[in-house]
Amino acid sequence: MMKMTKTLDNLGDTFRRLWYRDTGERSLVINDVAVRIRAGILLIIPLYMGLTLYDVVFTSHWVVTGGMVKDTFDTDASGRILYNVEAVRRTYEYSRQTWVLLYALFEMIAGMFLWTSRFSPTIYISSLMAKHSKPVWKPLLPKRFAWSIGATLVSACLIFFNPEVFAGWVNALAGSKLLPTTSNFMPRWIPLVLVWVCIGFMWMETVLGICLGCKLHSLLVWTGLIKDDCEACNNLSWD
Question: Going by C-beta distance under 8 Å and a sequence separation of 6 or more, which residues neighbour residue 18?
Fold first, then answer.
């Protein structure tokens, strides 16, 4: 009975504090062990989007219909047999990918603030999984900067998968047709590069424990482009 009570108390403490050392601190500090676990969970999203983009960009854009494939009894200059086929242009529907990206955007924003973190399932899961490991305390501000970069990358992918919606918003605000609504104005290489950037950032966070966004934040603070009164944020280790 006492063991069960202790377990419930530990769970209650985890749900109250999540990955924070003390929610009442002026400069919030979070458990980097839980952050790395969460990055590993969220790594599934860029991997899924990478497979989607590979299918869109590199696989066939045509679908053979009706099983109509006829041998022409002829060959091309390379000696390959030529066939007549009935085919249609592939169409893509990205509602599932859009919802996945919207969830990823929510998770990026949720980790930035104390009150929003209460709505993140992955923060609860990672906090529980890190409960029995020795905590490694890191300042929240650099992580917040890193997640803002992640939110920007996710937003760019959302625009790629929903160009007509974004173009409609921009054109409505501008009062003129600045962006086309019948074609994708974003080059395909942009989301392809961004997906690999996301995978690389999150893999380094999960496996190597290196937060590149945090390093960039520290560099900007050192150069004076960002002003922060968080002493730990201004003295991050570059080892």
Answer: 34, 117, 118, 123, 124, 127
